[in-house]
Amino acid sequence: DTEVTQTPKHLVMGMTNKKSLKCEQHMGHRAMYWYKQKAKKPPELMFVYSYEKLSINESVPSRFSPECPNSSLLNLHLHALQPEDSALYLCASSQEGRGNQPQHFGDGTRLSIL
Amino acid sequence: GQNIDQPTEMTATEGAIVQINCTYQTSGFNGLFWYQQHAGEAPTFLSYNVLDGLEEKGRFSSFLSRSKGYSYLLLKELQMKDSASYLCAVRDPYSSASKIIFGSGTRLSIRP
User: Fold this and answer.
1) pLDDT band, residue B26 (cuts 50/70/90)
2) Which residues in chain A are contacts of B45 at CB distance < 8 A?
3) How confident is the model at residue A99 (pLDDT cuts 50, 70, 90)?
4) Which tens digit of pLDDT belongs to each residue from A45-77?
5) At B11, phi and psi to the nearest 5?
6) Does residue B28 carry a pLDDT above 90?
7) For residues B19 and B8, is the Cβ–Cβ distance under 8 A?
8) What is the DSSP letter of A111?
9) CA distance B104 to A106
10) pLDDT over threshold 90, residue B80
C-alpha cells in the first residue's frame, strides 16, 4: 500500500464523457504532481502544484484540467478525451523546497477511452 | 536540454549481482534518483545521490560520478521479486526544486 491514494483504480469512459481522477495524501507534502504513463514508458510529467498553486503545466491539452482544493487533495478533471489519452495516470507528492526529498507515488488510475 | 540514457532490458540470475547504468547529459545537475516500478504498480523510491560516491542501502547501492555524468544502481543477492523496471531520474536544475526528469527505464528480468 502507498501513502498516496488514488481513485478510481480503473476508469473506462467515452470521448464525450466528463470524469475526474482524485488523489489524496496526508504526509503534509506541499508539492503534488500528475503524471501520464504509457505501457513500457517512463512517467511523463503533466502538472505540478506547489502550495496549492499551479507551478508547472507541461503544455498539456486543455481537455485535462487540474485542481488542488487543499493541501491534501489533487484532482484531474477530464473532458472530451481522445483514444490516445488511454494510459496510467499517476499522482505523486513530495516535500517542497528540499531538493533531496523523493516523490511518493500513488498506484495510479488506469484510464481507457473508448 | 536534458538527456538520460539507460539500457532498455537486462537479464540476471537469482542470487547474482547486477549493475544498471545511467548516463545523463544536462546543462546543470542537482541530484539523481533511482526508482523501482513493478508492472502495474507505483514507482517506489530507492536512492538519491547528489555528491560523488556510493550510497548503500541493504542489497541496493547507487553510485554517482558528476564529472562523468554517470550513475549506476547495484543490486546484490538478486531475488525473483527484483524483476521490475528501474528508473533513473535527474532533478531539473532550471525549474522548481520539485521537477524531475525520468530516463526511459531498464526492465530487469530475474531467472531462477
Assistant:
1) confident
2) 102-104
3) low
4) 999 999 999 999 999 999 999 999 999 999 999
5) -130, 140
6) no
7) no
8) E
9) 20
10) yes
Task: Check if the beta carbon of residue A21 is closer than 8 Å to that of residue A75.
Answer: yes
What's the confidence (pLDDT) of residue A2? Answer: 62
Do you know the residue count of chain B?
112
What would the grid cell of residue A111 be? 484510464
Distances (CA, A) of B67 to A99, B53, B64, B88: 20, 11, 9, 17
Residues 24 through 43 of chain A touching chain B, CB cutoff 8 Å: 31, 33, 40-43
Find the residue in B nearest to A105 (Cα): B42
Chain centre to alpha carbon of residue A51: 16
**For position A1, what pLDDT does the model report?**
52
Residue type, A81: L
* 3 state DSSP class of A84: helix
